[in-house]
Amino acid sequence: MSAPKKRVVCIDDFVVLITVDCCDEKHKIGLTKTGKLSFFDHDGESIGTEESLRKLGDMDSGSKCGKVHRAWVEGGDWRNPLPDPLDDWREHFLAERNKRKEHAVNTQDPLADLSPRQRFDQRIRETAKEVLGACTYRRGKHSHVDRVLVNADRKVAGVSTTYDARTRVLSWGDDPVRQVSTSFTVTVPLRWYLHVYKAGISMIDNQFVVDTIGPRRANGQLLRVLKQSRGYKLQLRTALFTPRGALRWL
Fold it and tell me: Residue 202 to residues 191, 206, 249: CA-CA distances in angstroms?
């Protein structure tokens, strides 16, 4: 079998070039800018064969270049130290890889594993909940939780608006202290994001707009709006949003 052809080395492609004693010869090993070792006097098949033999239990056989490859992948030790300055460069590339992994985890989209429809529903819920929280409805001082549901059938939009109030006794004495906990659950249609939020009418006069009714007319746009009722309760009402920006209850 003929010996492998010598490769032409371009120094600019490598951050480190070293020479090791291997197979009674001087072999060159280069470290690329991407953190990969390049063996100029071995082909990839021979290095791979040595790795396969080692996994089968033949720990002592193998060339010096193969041992350098093993130390680079697994980390060197006293029996098979990684030649200088590869040891320091290995730590450098490991640190850079860990930074990239950490950045990928921190910037990963929490909705990446969801289907397109599920992602869109989640976006609607988050956006609608933020708008609902900014509305100036009467809320319990103890705690308040808003829930937003998305339904593809616009006929049920807003119908499931619910109200829950609980009186909690915080202390007993001559004047017991009571605080109210409230919770609103609002159902919006799938079209809410485009027809209401993107249209800039998701909140009018600090009140939450659930949906539009029919096409826009000359005297304004009919809307379904959450209106404050007695106590902490909300009602789903129909209102006309006039061209002058006023909200007229119907």
Answer: 12, 9, 16
